Amino acid sequence: MTDNDVPATYLDGYARLIANASATGRRLTRDELDSRRSLGEQAAEAGLGMRTLMAAHLAVARTHWPAGAVAPDSVLVVVAQALDAFAEGYERAQRVAVRQEEAARREFIDDLLYGRSDMGKLAERAERYGLRLSYAHAVAVARGAAAYEEGDPTPRSVERAMVSRFGDRHILLTTKDGRLVCVAPADQDEVLAFFAKHAYAATDGGQVAIGRPQPGPGGVVQSYEEALNALELAERLGLGDPVLRAADLLVYPVLTRDRQAMADLVVNTLGPLQRARGGAQPLIDTLAAYFDSGCVSAEAARRLALSVRAFTYRLDRIHKLTGADPADPVHRYTLQTAIIGARLLDWPDQQM
Question: pLDDT at position 89, please?
Answer without folding.
Answer: 92
